[in-house]
Design goal:
Blueprint lengths: L24 E10 L3 E8 L4 E7 L5 H12 L1 H4 L15 H12 L5 H16 L5 H5 L3 E6 L7 E4 L3 E5 L6 H14 L10 E5 L5 E5 L10 E5 L8 H6 L5 H12 L4 E5 L5 H9 L8 E5 L11 E5 L19 H10 L4 E4 L6 H10 L3 E7 L3 H9 L7 H4 L4 E10 L2 E15 L6 E10 L4 E4 L4 H10 L3 H20 L5 H11 L3 H8 L5
Parallel strand pairs: 3-6, 10-14, 10-15, 11-12, 11-13, 13-14
Antiparallel strand pairs: 1-2, 2-3, 4-5, 4-9, 5-6, 7-8, 8-9, 15-16, 16-17, 17-18
Helix pairs in contact: 1-4, 3-4, 8-15, 10-11, 15-17, 16-17
Length: 517
């Protein structure tokens, strides 16, 4: 039976791409996703000058197609006591179902044909059907279907926004699929209520529109894929998002309880950066996270992870069991639990005021915001619906800016600026801030500007001289660089090394270097 676990990047199994346009297509990359049955090929079309994300699945013969369509309809003979067998195969061994069917009906199928049928049954009944391979691809962040008979687009971590060879070929199939997505999220969509906003059990966020009542091109959907293996500090350095010096600064920032906002436009990697820096939190300290849809994923035992709840309140039934719990209520709850860190997925409403009140009372808070400069960040915080008084903005210690930067022929994500709040100018009424790190896109390099309030704070708290602080800074910086050199990207191992650092620095360095300890 086909293996449905994630496979590592593999070598191309054939030198030529098997498509009708193969003379115009160059194979750039290939890797397996679902065993060897569901694979991905990244192609370059020399005629249209575009990159294509091609899903490669086994082709079925007409006879195999007939068996695949017939088998679910006759499942009652194979599993007579299975309730809902026509739509739900959960808890059933797909391999045994096919084997029993072949035996009971004396169907002539080769082993290869049986494996292909098992693959498609599992894909369609236990997975997400047509886009199952794409959803399981660890390099894909977003999936966008803009209507029927239109190619699905994905955002690939390496190749950016690209078109796929996958599409829903008619409105009926796409409408049925959106209904299935709603059921996966435990919700419903209809012509009367055509908008879906939900998440799967795996944490993938789904937004969809059903039918053509408000979408002129028919049903649409967008996936924001939840990364089960969180983005790590080592990967931020490895992929050039930040330098080791920037990450060392952020390590000190987290350790010394400086509050921060991560700012940037949508899909620029704000939450990935937030996940990465939370891995630098000292062990045993308490984290309380608040999100609308789960995206934060860290290896930390003393962590309370909460999410908002939409209202199911029915006035006529007078049922208050489904009252709405929003981010504002959760921020207030967090303050009562005395966590060391309060983390809000994104500030965009009245919860921002409570978050800044928490900063004012000594809590360390982290969040993200949509803004691309310090001026835009201040304006966004001051404006409705956030309504943060300018004087309160100075309670914030650090603002980290993520931006898209062009590098050669591709667009990459970079931390382009790290700013520290320095105070408030009473005469001009402006927020005063200091740029600590900047990014030179031309040279592809992060640079320290020469001064940091945080570094002065650390030296004062620890009673260090400048040379002593530099020695410790260089050690941490080297620790991160050694993990990059050793290609240690597993978040469990990275967390262990960081935690070991606080107890035995030399042992941590050996672990980071890949040496046996």
């Amino acid at each position: 039976m086909a293996e449905f676990s994630l496979m590592r990047r593999s070598r191309p199994k054939r030198p030529m791409v098997k498509t009708s346009e193969k003379e115009n297509l160059d194979l750039i990359d290939r890797y397996d996703i679902i065993g060897t049955f569901g694979s991905v090929e990244i192609l370059w079309n020399r005629e249209t000058m575009e990159t294509i994300y091609s899903v490669v699945e086994p082709k079925l013969t007409d006879y195999e197609m007939l068996i695949l369509k017939t088998l679910p309809k006759e499942m009652q003979m194979v599993i007579p006591n299975k309730v809902g067998y026509l739509t739900d195969f959960y808890g059933v061994d797909i391999g045994k179902v096919v084997d029993d069917y072949v035996k009971a009906y004396e169907v002539k199928l080769s082993e290869e044909s049986k494996e292909k049928i098992k693959y498609y049954l599992k894909r369609d009944f236990e997975g997400l059907g047509l886009i199952e391979v794409i959803v399981k691809d660890p390099y894909v962040e977003d999936i966008s279907c803009d209507g029927y008979n239109i190619p699905i687009f994905v955002y690939h971590r390496k190749y950016g926004s690209i078109k796929t060879n996958t599409m829903f070929k008619n409105a009926e199939v796409l409408n049925s699929y959106v209904i299935k997505l709603a059921q996966v999220c435990g919700k419903e969509v209809s012509v009367a209520e055509p908008i879906l906003d939900g998440s799967t059990q795996e944490g993938h966020r789904i937004q969809a529109i059903y039918g053509n009542e408000i979408s002129t091109r028919g049903s649409t959907f967008t996936f924001r894929l939840f990364r089960e293996r969180p983005f790590t500090p080592v990967e931020l350095i490895k992929f050039g998002t930040a330098s080791s010096e920037v990450l060392t600064y952020l390590w000190y920032m987290v350790e010394n309880l400086n509050s921060a906002l991560i700012a940037g436009v949508p899909a620029v990697g704000k939450t990935s950066t937030l996940n990465a820096i939370l891995m630098l939190v000292p062990p045993n300290t308490k984290i309380f996270s608040i999100e609308e849809t789960r995206e934060i994923n860290i290896m930390h035992q003393n962590w309370v992870a909460t999410s908002t709840r939409e209202s199911d309140y029915d006035i006529e039934d007078n049922d208050s069991s489904g009252l709405k719990i929003d981010m504002f209520e959760l921020v207030k709850m967090a303050m009562r639990q005395r966590p060391t860190y309060i983390v809000v997925g994104e500030v965009r409403g009245r919860e921002a005021n409570s978050l800044f009140q928490a900063m004012a009372t000594g809590h360390t808070t982290y969040s993200t915001i949509h803004a691309d400069s310090m001026e835009a960040t201040v304006n966004r915080l001051e404006s409705a619906p956030l309504n943060i008084p300018r004087i309160m903005i100075t309670y914030l210690n650090t603002v980290i800016f993520n931006k898209f930067v062009r590098s050669g022929d591709s667009v990459v994500r970079r931390i382009t600026e790290v700013d520290e709040m320095s105070g408030f100018d009473n005469e001009s009424g402006e927020v005063v801030y200091n740029k600590v790190f900047t990014y030179d896109a031309f040279r592809g390099k992060h640079s320290f500007t020469g001064f940091s309030n945080l570094y002065k704070k650390v030296q004062a708290l620890k009673g260090m001289t400048s040379s002593q602080f530099k020695e410790e800074f260089d050690f941490r910086n080297k620790l991160l660089e050694e993990m990059v050199r050793s290609d240690i990207t597993d978040y469990v191992q990275i967390t262990r090394i960081i935690n070991t650092y606080y107890k035995d620095k030399d042992r941590a360095m050996l672990m980071a270097s890949g040496e046996p300890v």
